[in-house]
Amino acid sequence: MECSTWRSVSIIILFTILSFVGSGYSQQAERYSFLNQAAEAPITSYYDYIIIGGGTAGCPLAATLSHNYKVLLLERGDSPYSNKNVSNLMNFPDTLADTSPTSAAQRFVSEDGVINSRARVLGGGSCLNAGFYTRASPNYVREAGWDGRLANESYEWVEKVVVFEPTMPKWQTALRNGLLEVGITPFNGFTYDHEFGTKIGGTIFDGDGNRHTAADLLEYANPEGLNVLLHARVSRILFKIEGRVRPKAYGVIFWDQYGKRHKAYLNQGADNEIIVSAGALGSPQLLMMSGVGPRDQLEALNISVVLDQQMVGQGMSDNPMNAIFVPSPNPVATTLIQVVGITKFGCFIEGASGSNFIISGSNFTGGTPGRNFGMFSPQTGQLATVPPKERTPEAIARAVEAMNSLEESHFQGGFILEKIRGPISTGFLKLKNRNIDDNPSVTFNYFKEPIDLERCVRGIQTIERIIKSPGFSNFTYSDLQMGTLLNISTRFPVNTLPRSSEDTRSPEQYCRDTVMTIWHYHGGCQVGQVVDLDYKVFGTDALRVVDGSTFRFSPGTNPQATVMMLGRYMGVRIQNERLARQRAARET
Ligand SMILES: Cc1cc2nc3c(=O)[nH]c(=O)nc-3n(C[C@H](O)[C@H](O)[C@H](O)COP(=O)(O)OP(=O)(O)OC[C@H]3O[C@@H](n4cnc5c(N)ncnc54)[C@H](O)[C@@H]3O)c2cc1C
Ligand SMILES: *[C@@H]1O[C@H](CO)[C@@H](O)[C@H](O)[C@H]1NC(C)=O
Ligand SMILES: *[C@@H]1O[C@H](CO)[C@@H](O)[C@H](O)[C@H]1NC(C)=O
Ligand SMILES: *[C@@H]1O[C@H](CO)[C@@H](O)[C@H](O)[C@H]1NC(C)=O
Ligand SMILES: *[C@@H]1O[C@H](CO)[C@@H](O)[C@H](O)[C@H]1NC(C)=O
Ligand SMILES: *[C@@H]1O[C@H](CO)[C@@H](O)[C@H](O)[C@H]1NC(C)=O
Ligand SMILES: *[C@@H]1O[C@H](CO)[C@@H](O)[C@H](O)[C@H]1NC(C)=O
Fold first, then answer.
1. Ligand 4 atom closest to Cα of residue 301
2. How many domains does the chain have?
3. What is the reported pTM?
4. Of ligand 7's atoms, which has the minimum distance to the CA of residue 487?
5. Is residue 465 part of a domain?
6. pLDDT one-digit tens code per residue, 244-272
7. Range of the domain at 207
């Protein structure tokens, strides 16, 4: 009796939570009382923690610290809740395609020539991404020096609010079957865990295709302890230098959308801190702009050197992605990533299917004009039919035009992609100027290390076998119909396998020519190089970096789970350690 009462109570609570969580974005323009515009902020203000970057790590970190401290979260972008491009799976390409200064995505092109994107919105990359959610392996967690139990608790904290089990359309099921048939076994079912074999992962899109993001983790915040400022562009961290052995961060300068300058300072208190969570491009960029970085680079830009730190901006990596379009004789639903094959040879195989059609007069709310291939649309910068350095705006325009002249049936199909584990190849980031709104220059050196290239080649060969596997047969043309396929592909701005007689490229060259990004770039403030195991910036006081810039390798098959986990994890650790110090101080 008592037990069943409890059960119905908890079912009611569950429904209340679910209906709250699932209630959609449209009516939530002002979802939180603590969301404010930077322009409304005073010229100077004081906080216990100032977090720079309301992204995938910054939001869970701020939510956690707000329970015991006064926290300021500074985000340069807008709220995701009023942005239709962010809110639904079908709109995936729209934000990436929007290159205006108000877009939630800021396009950048690496020196390698690959077109890429970084977030400029509360919730960060989780507002732009393909939604796939999967944890790091226990081995990765161990090597990162994280406490396994707290890491698991932190993953669970995230999963309760933003992660869902996907419903599997036939195309994704066929991909799963193909992966198993080519030997990427066992089948591990639906799981967040990272294990060899094939699995179905979580997704931050709910059953209606609505996106749930790191900004939703602010639900956990204590509204009394948190102020989130939107359109707050931080241009500099301020350091006390005089009379100190180590420079100590004590405040920040930020600009509102009307170009007015504000300052926020740390309250008095030995434990108060500034935490940089501005992402893999933003964090090293901001450290350098603030005088922490390689002396020669800073001096060349007249930035006064606070700390000569040669490793800031080093160790930048972007996992190469190569993808193959597989035209289907049967209709396919639009899906982003749901299934992954985790191979033993160091590559992850995933897929996305379908396409979007913006038909004027329809009730579709997306903005990308014309037809597109979802995740692999030239409009978003993904154009693998020409080598990286030839992906000019003109080349993109030609591809878009070619696509718009195709019949709808030509879009029927899906992409099977491979991402290289790691990667081992690394590059570097440099400032171009002292404008925080501009992208720094970044070089990823895709495939510089031979092992990355070998893994790509094996990945492409594996995809070829998947396409030929019986399990995938409903969604590909048979060998007999390959002529049709090739005929289609010569007119398509997408890649197919390098099998035509004209394509004499080696598999290695094919990998280099068709490399794209899966947007998992990381590094620049790596643990052991720029920050210590507590994420404190070496050689400074009261300053940490907590985000994807601290990673040496991309965690799991896809990183967002671990980035969100890390925000929560570090929030709990910082708070617990501080409370323990206070207790110890009281006892003595
Ligand atoms: C298109 C795309 C698809 C992806 N697909 C997946 C996927 O399916 N699964 C997956 O796991 N991962 C995916 N990822 C990767 C994942 O989303 C990112 O690795 C992750 O979001 C990075 O988190 P972060 O906290 O390091 O940086 P971000 O989330 O980018 O956060 C940085 C924040 O800091 C802000 N900021 C930067 N500079 C300043 C400044 N000076 N002042 C104020 N604010 C500033 C930015 O606006 C941003 O909000 C994808 C990413 C993209 C872009
Ligand atoms: C959505 O995307 C479209 C096309 O990319 C763009 O024109 C529009 O301004 C975007 N809307 C918002 C709210 O950012
Ligand atoms: C964390 O969870 C994973 C499963 O997701 C498990 O394999 C691992 O042992 C757990 N670690 C600890 C320390 O409990
Ligand atoms: C740096 O300062 C010097 C002297 O004021 C000036 O000549 C030079 O142009 C400046 N360089 C940059 C990159 O601003
Ligand atoms: C329009 O809305 C209806 C009902 O919600 C839906 O079934 C249909 O797929 C939508 N059409 C488009 C083009 O989005
Ligand atoms: C192909 O599709 C048909 C019709 O839906 C189905 O019966 C069959 O099982 C599918 N084949 C495979 C290999 O999945
Ligand atoms: C190739 O496509 C063109 C244009 O659609 C068509 O005329 C031709 O018959 C096709 N050839 C083959 C071999 O399918």
1. 13
2. 1
3. 0.91
4. 1
5. no
6. 999 999 999 999 999 999 999 999 988 99
7. 35-83+121-165+201-317+429-441+521-588
